[in-house]
Fold:
Amino acid sequence: MKKLYSLMAVVLLASMLLSACGATTPTPAATQAPAPATQAPAATSAPATQPAATQASSGTAPDCTQANVFCVGDVTDVGHVDDKSFNQSTWEGVQKAKTDGVVDWAQYIETSDSKDYAKNIDTFAQAGYKVIVTTGFNLTDPTYAAAKQYPNIMFIGVDQGLQKDANHPDWPLPNLVGLVYHEDQSGFLVGALAAMISKSHKVGGVFGTDAVPAVWRYGEGYAAGAAYEDKKNGTTTTVTRVYHNDVGFDKTFTDPDWGATTAQSMIDKGADIIFGGGGITGNGAVDKAAADKVLAIGVDTDQYYTLPEADPYLLTSAMKPIPGPLEDLIKLAKSNKFPTNGLYYGASGYAPYHDTANLVPANVDAEMQALLKGLTDGSIQTGVSAAKPAQ
Structure:
């Protein structure tokens, strides 16, 4: 199957004669099986009057200020649009809307420094874009401020669970929706699987900063899932979690060396499964585990399709599929049916086992399916709060 997808990707890329040189093609995120990549993003630079070109549409950019031209802009968090994780999944969602004919023109701006969040958002706003998507918790406040400044533009904040408080007194805003997930549920699922599969009953989690609620929920859910299965099966699994809190936001999710070193430390102490949860930092942990022939767990998207070197040892990925729900929100924005409560929840889940399926007994797989059903219908609770309690 992987060879088939590779062949399809080659044929598709060969047909895109107008795609930008040097671009990296993001592999699509999927909940069960991936679709072939639809468009390669081009390398970005930030011109004075237009957002960074992306080849989401071939040819010259249209005049997005025209009422009948539906343009969508994507502002990434610090990092790259082909980060094989969160930024990439968001861009794939925008691309999907373009491919399906919802969007006339789509572009992205890669943020290299967090101080540029507002400037990058404003670039799209000034260019007349109808929808602006911003990626990640760190853009919560800049997105809220921009939504107030530009009430006629629709804003989608991926992973931005706003609430009415002193910093956001006018929440919810009619033109801003946060696409959010129950990361504790996805973490719970992979933590349960790790506890059932681990032979040493020592498992690790390498994460970005827990100052980001979604990351904290992943880690707490991971431990809660392992504890749930331990209680059922009479086992005791040690779950070691380390968060990259000793650096700024510009570094916490873009430090694969730290991720690899931290994973190695856990492996040296007997961990036989490593969960990498935190952008490129987490990818470093996954790749290191696989290099040491230790089972690994990916995050956000099905990383079997984005971290190929880890494939033989990738047990699963904690999923929060972004492209589908993001496209749904873009459709709602276009049809003037934007949610009015300010939040839109995507589904939680876990990825297929792929090459490691032979390591998952039938009874374990049945338990995983039962857990997913229970979490979905509410009969099973993770016990994890929405935000990290104040200390």
Observations:
- Residues 48-181+321-347 form a domain with the Rossmann fold fold (CATH 3.40.50.2300).
- Residues 1-57 have pLDDT under 50 and may be disordered.
- The radius of gyration is 20 Å.
- The chain has eleven helices and twelve strands.
